[in-house]
């Protein structure tokens, strides 16, 4: 047997997965690290804690698998987008890794949106203007921590930092670079205007390489710890969104990947970079002729968790006592309510929202309440609202890349048959749930095999994934959803005028200490 | 001792109260009758069941009190507004009493609002255009049940029917007449245009009399049953809203009566009829120089009941097991949340709304949800939302009659200290809760004493009522409420554009049988 390792550096853990050349998982390690949220809107990680977790993960997998010499062909990386680390002259971190979830640059992102520069940059970088991007974070740091900013010799992301520590080489793949907001997707190079707006120069950034680029020559002490041949090729890999599409076999035109985990996303592959005139969707590089266009949403399964914890606390206890999954119990309650929740509409923006409205001040709402509505209606409306929101992202995507033909769906939501069927019914599309649980790591491994010539084409991934479930849309639900979605969309627009006001109120009057 | 009886003919029961001349309750009977709701939007009562209940109530009170001859000076009536009964040539009912809660004339009320005729009529009648009014019901019956309509010789309300049965005299007091939508408050007579729009003539209506008008000569068989001297004077009395103001001593300028029972109202007395250019408030006659301007709201305590029954069903059971009042338990939960519910705003329009938005399609909503909001926030937001709504009625009233100076508050809500304090805080006014539990019956008895010359002035009522509670506004809450009320109001306007759409959806897709 021959093998490939996919490493998925996520927000709360790194997943290290050993695959055989049939795409079967042969080893697995999940190594956690803390997310630091010392002040409001902060979301940082310690790059050295991540580095240790990666070493631990690889070590665990390698020791356990005990592979024959020469059978491990390579290691390929996925990493979360948008992280920023400031390094000094010696490549030592001056900051922690500021993650995508960090919102402290909100003021500067707003400015870019308002003064029109954001639109100019988006149209070249394919990266929506948002506090999550390194572009916004650089402006924020330059303005609010100038000493720190001026001390920095290098500006990198977590993957670049890890590669540097392993190989002593500072380079960045197009896909990760793409998501910084500093990379021009048409010239495939750092964008001069973006660099100027950020206040940095080209020579403060890593060298750009393709996602299929290989590196060898790992430092021998690390190789020794892990138990890996130091000549094993490492493939740069890409960022997690594009690799997730690959890992669920959503790389053919029209095949849409929908994820509802804690957050969510809708993404589709095109062969050329595409821009949304309204700036609602991103366009990120995966590999030559593969670009991923899509929208990330904050409010996925985390909203269902809120419904369970806050609106169904007593039932959650009941489920615990019954030793059944509390989400399953809630799903059963929701299933008793008809499609459309008897006209109760939920906007799921509990945590602000990225795509499609890109409004960090957005808030959740229930609309249409009558005395016949119960909490059971609320849980169903919440599940529907999460899907309506993803559907509006799909509608934005359609304007850019055309009609979808089918959906590959993943994430924790897929444990609920009701929720999967809702996705099919609201999108009016066939929905397939792939069997492989670690799509992003599989995407990384597949890209690695492609880079090494072990497969001819990325579409080989279809042989790697099984099918867990298939759902066809139920036409009986169409009248309800077709009537409610337009109301949902018009309301989103109506409510937008008050999001800033209520968010300002909450920032001013809600005591920080009360925040959970 | 000398005595007076106040009879309050309500929507679900008649309350018969015996007062001494110090305004102290000396006897009481509450006699129920059913509300018929055979089809959606119907709300009817059987006039003869009401008549029997009144006879039963008076009999109970008289037999129990066993008064000395000549000490009962009179009986005075309050009745719910807007009821309509069709009578034949022999004064026999052709219909049940169609109550204020009946919404079947909605189409015709909408038409009046839309074609501008409604506004013309409102400006003369002081009665908002709404399906509740006899005006709307007459148009509805003429169009949808022409045979029945044409058979009718007389169009009366419940009080006129009762008086006719007791005395053989068909007459209607200005106050009840005022609320039909057919009465011109400036000419103090039926309005020709309104009669024409309704499609009836002046001679199909009872004779108009003042609210202080006396009748004697009760049919002796009824007098015998009740045990009352047939020469006892009966005072016509007024409708329940105006008499409630009197009964809580809210008759001086600036003193506002706020009621939160199942529904709610905000009302204030002026010395001249006043009209709201925006048509949001009613103006009803009480007595010479006393007009009551105000707004009725559908969504009072019934919304708190919904929160309890639907959102807090488990806690309701807990309260039952603890043998404590479930509303008290919920109030305690709400009290733990800061004023302003951490920026969660609730529009209480679960049952459509009358004042101030007059939109039967209005629906409830929660706005501003974040992941830190819990059900405890929802219950507090609901209590606050009910008060915000009443406050917006107050703002409309202010435009018509000027700033309030203090509040007299009544209704089931007054059992909650938290809710009473909220009223003081949101209105920024001192709130007094009178001790007398049956304000409307006391108002009727007071008007009766005034009519009989037993008191010189209606303001004598102040000696009749005690004070149960006083609340002063707490300035610490002002910043929260002053920030949120404007958002609440702007949202009301924003959401209005979708009320009809969601209500149409609910009418079309929610199965009638599912309605509770
Ligand atoms: N302990 C309590 N705390 C708070 N609110 C209460 C309490 N008890 C009752 N209520 C509220 O009072 C409402 C009932 O009010 P009330 O008893 O005045 O009703 P009603 O006479 O049917 O009303 P209406 O006068 O509108 O017909 C309930 O729906 C509830 O909201
Ligand atoms: N049995 C279930 N039924 C429905 N939804 C579920 C179930 N279990 C988990 N979920 C949803 O999945 C979410 C977690 O998704 P997951 O993909 O595991 O998270 P992450 O994005 O953090 O990797 C939960 O917040 C919940 O909404």
UniProtKB/TrEMBL annotation, chains A, B:
Determine the domain of life of the protein's source.
Bacteria
Q: Which Gene3D superfamilies does this UniProt record tie to the protein?
A: 3.30.420.40
The UniProt record lists the EC number as 2.7.1.12
Name this polypeptide is given = Gluconokinase
Family note: Belongs to the FGGY kinase family.
Where in this chain does the entry annotate a coiled-coil region? none
Q: Which InterPro entries match?
A: ATPase_NBD, Carb_kinase_FGGY, Carb_kinase_FGGY_CS, FGGY_C, FGGY_Carb_Kinase, FGGY_N, Gluconate_kinase
Q: Tell me where in this chain the Carbohydrate kinase FGGY C-terminal domain is found.
A: 257-452
Start and end residues of each Carbohydrate kinase FGGY N-terminal domain: 3-247
Q: Which UniProt keywords apply?
A: Kinase, Transferase
Q: Which GO terms describe its molecular function?
A: gluconokinase activity
PROSITE patterns tied to this protein: FGGY_KINASES_1 (PS00933), FGGY_KINASES_2 (PS00445)
Kinase is among the record's keywords: yes
